[in-house]
Amino acid sequence: MDVDNLTANQSPPAPSKEHPLPPPDTQHISPTLDIAGQRTGSLADELRLLSLEAAAERYLGSSSGLSFAKLTQTVLQRLSPDQEGFMFDGGVTDNQQQSCDSDPEPDPLSNSNSIFFEMNASLTGLLPLNSIFGNPVVEDFEDSMGLALLDPSHINSLLEFYFAHSHTLYPFIRKSEFEAVLWRIYGDPLDPLAQSPLWQFRIWMVLAIGSTTYCSVSLMDETEPLQFFNKAMTYFEAAMGCGDLAGLEVLMLQVSYSFFNKIGPNTWFLVGVAARMATGMGLHTSDVYQTLAVDVAEQQKRLFFSLYMMDRVVSLALGRPFAIQDDDITVEPFANADDANIQPDGIVAASTLEASTMAVPLHILALRRIASDIGSQVHSQNYSKRQSPEAREETIQKLHRRLLEWRRSMPFPLPDLQSKVPHL
Q1: Distances (CA, A) of 141 to 62, 226, 227, 239, 264
Q2: How far apart are the first and last CA of the chain?
């Protein structure tokens, strides 16, 4: 269908009982014409027209594509398609670093012809995500919410829920460092780290994840986690501009939140975008880690394999293909060591016989890998067609033996958690 001809050459029907006049604010049906009769509306105007006025009424929910466009726009800004191999930028520019160390300010539109920029500026802007989705639970979002307004005991309980559940499954946040920064900002709101959009996003998202986890157990109202999530999203774009690894962490925090709360982009989409970012940075290859300090390499491995486990959980639950293929992964999993024992020049041996905090996450990773092989070797039609009945039976028996060995090698004793939380 030719949209230009449809909007430029057809006149609207005369008003009648069947076709009453629309409200005054919805009568701008087509872009204006200049003196020569040429259309002056941009492609963004046409997309806006189709998205907002083609339906019976205006709707800014998730199905309108606005949240998709907003997140995609942010990720696409980080791509450099003119570079060899379509890789992500390797570092953070001076301007980006400055924005990560100071208060986020509205940046001027660097590309006025960008469709996503125009849609973002005119439709979404810096509104909290909740206002875009029109969620009735939280009608008034208070951007003035501060960390110091929360009770310390309540913060501790939310942190306990986060690190007992999400951190055990996806350990990409350094607990000791995170808690130190949180209480430092709590005690001094003017601390330089309080001006970092990345740290602000981390803190509010961890609180949101801990709160929504608690609500899923206690069946309480979701008002508080939505408030924390909306607060975090005010720092989303600035945090995404703090570097590739920071952007990946930002998306993965949203994935953790989406496991328990459906506000925002869906989990499948978020995992897919995060997987593309990770593979674009080469986090799945061992070569990337060879020149890094040991502590930096271990943190990036935790980040990648946390994403791997997220991908396996979501893909197997939905019956969809994996975003990260096992055959493409050449990097070894993260070390079975506590944060305090990981130094820039090496890993210090533990002084006690107790299992490290990474023992359980590594054991869960082993289970995800077995589940991945079950999905690709047993339930894959193409793989099964190439196997004889005898070979297929041998594959099943081998996987069964791996499951038994996984059960026998479970870390002992397991951590004694005070918070009874669900595990995905």
Answers
A1: 19, 9, 7, 20, 15
A2: 46
Strands in 212-345 per DSSP E: 342-343
Element (H, E) at 211: helix 197-218
| Number of residues assigned to the chain | 424
Q: What's the predicted TM-score (pTM) here?
A: 0.70
Q: Contact 173/164 with Cβ under 8 angstroms?
A: no
Question: Burial of 217 by CB count in 10 Å (0-12 exposed, 13-18 middle, 19+ buried)?
Answer: middle
Tokens of 48: 């806006």
Task: List, run by run, the mean pLDDT of 10-residue segments along the chain (424 residues).
Answer: 45 49 44 44 57 47 50 55 43 50 41 38 39 39 71 93 91 95 93 94 96 79 87 93 93 92 80 94 95 96 97 92 94 94 90 84 96 89 80 92 94 65 50
Amino acid at 246: A
Residue 195's contacts (CB-CB under 8 Å, 6 or more residues apart) are 101, 102, 103
